Amino acid sequence: MMSDHKPFRVLGVQQIAIGGPDKQRLRSLWVDIFGLAVKSTFVSERENVDEDICALGQGAHAVEVDLMQP
To answer: Whole-prediction pTM value?
Structure first.
């Protein structure tokens, strides 16, 4: 019989990153349809990223959902 003991414990999810060639299409689905709130944006030429930082849920259990395009 196999043991179910694991040397770790998953406490939750802190962040999810979703990328695509067109951030506006991602935003249409995740913000306009699913209702996520956009908290801020981040653009970095050095990191080649343009992202909207959204929130799913509230308080200690909120999950950051990053909608990203190059």
So the answer is: 0.78
